[in-house]
Model the fold of this input.
Amino acid sequence: MDRRRIQGSLLTGGTESTVRGVCNRTDSPLEGSILVAPSLEAGLYDAIVAASAVVCSSGGRTGHMQSICRGRGIPVLRIDHDDLADLAGEVTLHLDSESITIGPALSAHAPEAGTEAPSLQNLGSACAVIADLRDIDTINACGPGAAQVESFFIREEFLCLAAGLSPLDAFGGGPTDVTGYGKAVADRLCMFVDALLPSQRIVLRMLDLRSDHAASVTERAPITIEPNPELGLHGARWLLGSAAYRDALHAVLGALHDQLGDAARRVHLSVPFLTDAEEFTQVMDHLQLPEEVPVAAFIETPAAVHAAEALCAAGASELFLGTKDLAQFYLAADRNNHLVAESYQTRHPAVLDGLDRVITAARTAGTPVRVFALHADLKHYLDRLPTPDGYMMCTAELERMILQSR
Done:
């Protein structure tokens, strides 16, 4: 039998050196399969999380759906588009050689010896970036080291994907739809809080649904077609124009208080895709949140880097540094475009300078600051950056560090 080997580029790794499975070319979940798709879209969420690996022909290492895969330890291999058509039946993904072979496996490859990695203690007050409830259970089942994970960070749009919610459809309906959405989000968050250890909390990054992503999870609401959604109407810009989201968020907080009482304080909020402190203040004025609700600022644009000191002064409860988007905007290199992968560098001196500026400003102001890091970048950051309050990492990478610490 001709066992053709197709060379690719590994976008996210896994826990094994090889992964075998049957190809799934549909959007229906098939447990343990190898999902084959031209690109990773939100509509494939169920199929992605059921897969043991994903093969695609576009996208970068830090795209949103790739980040879900990294968090779950699901390898993603990118190959040429013309090669996708050849993938059928049983295939084997080889993580060490970043390739895939077609046909039943003849033998397994022995795992390669790893290099010495930073320890759990290097992470400070660690934050796990999660996609759904299962990720909290995964971390907290790791033993005593899980207590070093002080917080779990989730994007509201990922929560919607896991819960089957369509936010823009709800916001386009009447008050009952808006309240229903808010209660559904609160119900999900209550399950998250129940799974926490006593010292842990949840940070919800408020809805940041770009128009291209919104189109795949919306059935009724009109979606504006934007020429460049990454730089379009999303994040804080969108929040400022949505009264329905403000009402939904109030419904979330009200339901959390009714169901959890004082434990509702374990749910914090963060404002996404900010430009400056004035925008943060406008969002706070627009949302009209209770004073006791902590609201953090998510820094992922160069402009927000230069506004770090002012954001602290404006009342941000803490700063989260979104390295993936920050690198993209500093270097004008789309993190989802493999054609510019060599230009997208999370260790670029300009990116490191931006991280340094924010950490220094936050520490001077006495505002907690946390930095997202890929495991591959962690030692580089530890050697070159001031010490933040903690590092943020995806679930699978953080789980491995906790288990290694035992």
Observations:
- The chain is about 40% helix and 20% strand.
